[in-house]
Amino acid sequence: MLRLLYTLVLTLVAPLFLYGLFKHKQGKPSVGKRWKEHFGFTPNLEQVDDQPVIWFHAVSVGEVIAVSPLIRRYANANPKHTIVITTTTPTGAEQAEKLSNIAQHRYMPLDFTFAVMGFVKRIKPSKLMIVETELWPNTLATVKKAGIPITVINARLSERSCRNYSKVHPFFWLAAQHVDTLCCQFDEDAERFIRLGVDPLRVSVTGSVKFDITVNSETKVHGDNLRATLGASRPVWIAASTHEGEDEKVLSAHRTILETHPNALLVLVPRHPERFNQVEQLCSDFGFSVVRKSLTHQPVSVTTSVFLGDTMGEMMTYLAASDLCFMGGSLVGSKVGGHNILEPAALGVPCITGPSYFNFTQIVEKMLNANAIEVVDDESQLAQRLEALIQNPTRCSDIALSASHVVKQSQGAINRTLDMMGN
Description:
alpha/beta, globular, seven-stranded parallel sheet, Rossmann fold, 423 residues
């Protein structure tokens, strides 16, 4: 009865979800003719003989990036397995295509039983590996009924989400009861799942795979090349993965910095590609000279104040070209909860975050305990801290070194997760 009620509600809200998903937005990749995959009409896999099919689900860009090193390691260790990655969003699909030499991409079916059944019958997966905590009741019930073991890897559950789930516990349990194994990032995540009724025997702590980040030489070369374009001798700071309502605060902080460092350059990288044009206009409204990365004919001069990172999949390059990083999604109240601060840490770029980082609480607290990150409350403090760090290269080096130590000391999650996955 509860699943029926859930499905009825889903039927009512699905058109709104699909409208947002399928609507064409400038700068955003499109689902295009592949829209049928969301309803379970999935193309056959390119498969040799009867190789086992391992199904990884990563909802969007962040999850695909986080799990990519693990998928590469799994593919190398299991060359006779066929790997399929599902994402919900087209931006996630675009990121998944970077693994096309080892994995095939399909869109995730909607959480309707008929759609999931169609997908499962066509793909015939032998395992489902869900990245982080993407738990859908009909999907998990259908997969479980088909005899397919379900593992959640890199699982996380904030205190806020735990409290929210506890208020609708029957609906949470509709999905969670079907999970065979939960590989949690931290002890706190495991404790919260257990608090919600998950059998402790099904819960383990493997660490966050995000700590197992590696920086290849190609990234450093691209970063050095971009920095030469931006200007080697000027202060360059990046505002990474910013959200609507946050860009104004970042630009306000940059205006303050320019008062004492008139040659400073802001690399501004909005989180969502459909906002690129809007953010460019916002920069102009602030009176800044702005150059877009995608327009290669635009030269970056000493008068350029903002460099707009309007491309997808180049965040590591943007970070590698910067002296300092502000991680976005953290100055917009409690709506977002921050983004991955381990990427700048791995590149040796000192990082600042706003007060809203609840999606990365344990990671930020590790960094704070090691004096490896700084937290600001608003754009005024952001400008103050950036100015102080620009003037104090020793402090920048200390933050970067401490952050690098935290990353190295916390690595190993991929090995532990692969051990839990087996063959």
